[in-house]
Fold this protein.
Amino acid sequence: MISNLINRKIFTLLKVQYSNMLEYRVEIALWAISGIIPFFMLNIWTNNNLNESINISDTLLSRYFLCAFFVRQFSVVWVVFSFEEDSLMGKVSPYLIQPLNPFFRYFAQHLAEQITRFPFALIIAFFFFILNPESIWIPNLGILLLSIVSTFLSFLIQFLIQSIVACLCFWTEKASSIERLLFIPTLFLSGLLAPVVSFPAYVKSWIYLTPFPYLIDFPANLLSGNETNISGGLIMQILWIFILFPLFKKIWSEGTKKYTAMGS
Amino acid sequence: MNLRKYLKVYKKFLHTSLASELEYQTNILVDLITAILSLVGSIFLLSIFFQNSGYIGGWKFEQALIIQAIYTILNGITNTWFNPNLTEIVKHIREGTLDFVLLKPIDSQFFISLKKINPSGFLEIMLGFLLLFFCIRINQINLNLSFLTLSSITISCSICILYSLWFFISTSTIWFVKTWNAIEVLRSFLYIGRFPLSSFSFSLRIFFSVFIPIAFITTIPSEVFLGLTVFWKILLEIIVATLFLINSRKFWLFAIKFYSSASS
């Protein structure tokens, strides 16, 4: 009975958000295009023969960057920006009265956006293969499923981190600048611009303890067939979710106590 | 055009927007840390590229640092003026408040492009200049009058091109209503500006000098610093910048003919 109710709620939320997202198809297509930075990086790597030094062939490297593009497409999170706007405008108050944590709403929004984005990402991949026909490959089903799971876990980690930052809105109003700060290490350390294998040793010694390489590098290596520790990576992803989730619940309950709506 | 009147109005703009931005002091501190981290991150990325090869596209590490410095300065200018103002156009059009701008007895493009200022971008500009002076020392560049004029001419041309690119994209909102993500596409293309143009493949080089002249923005000023540039390139940049500026003006006058305010 209860699970049925939750299912229905989630289904309705998804349906509403999906039709909302379909309204802005062009915007989402543009957003998909804005994620092509990995391809520029690939161009620098192969054009200067930099990959020889890290023992990755051209084909594997181009697959890696294509997968990095895909993982990034399906793990983009912007909850802090939505929440900041809603909280500054006082829109959070009606959400708080509803018997549903408002973050479910944002969560459904993200999932719906990913479904809308999927065809555009496929089109970009199609063009990529036309330009680089030698990098076409078909991952086996098990690997494909595992990488979908790990991409989703990466999305969850980023969603939790951003939700924690978003809850800071209850205290500081402008939490998005903290998010922009956190985005910098995510950009440079996650493997979006350069595979983590190529990092110098003094970075590699500690980076695997942080959540960053599990956001893009690990799922992309998995999907592209590059060498990676599958079970270790998945365990670390789940571990980070178990660390972040209680933190989010704690800060959410503290924050809602602190919350003062506009006009109250 | 009454210059004195515009100067006076601009002083008022500065006063009001500085006053409102300085309300969020911790924000400025966070933005400073973000700017420093982002510079450290891109130098880190550059050092990965150079760790096993002395040259990238014919540029040494010390020379490529000049591009980083100029990119940082231009990015600071973008964050100080272009980003806060030109993203506002999107909001004006969606909410119909562009009416109030058009009704004012002042040039609307002037109003819309310079109304706001974000002081945290200044820190980034200063950071860029610090790096630039450092580069001038390690590359043993002689400072003389002709060099200073040439470099300031090319950098001002870059600023004009950058402004026009931002302005074109934001103005297209009049037809497309939501173009937040078009701005994201521009941002991701501008990312190219962190690296020497010659490190990319031929087709990308053509694309980024003919269609979106990002090549002109950072590479040509850096070549001026190194004394590598030829006269026709500087002339070309001046012509491109003038064309872009004139067209941005024409485009704005053309676009506001199509503006129908929110209720009509």
Remarks:
- DSSP finds 13 helices and no strands in chain A.
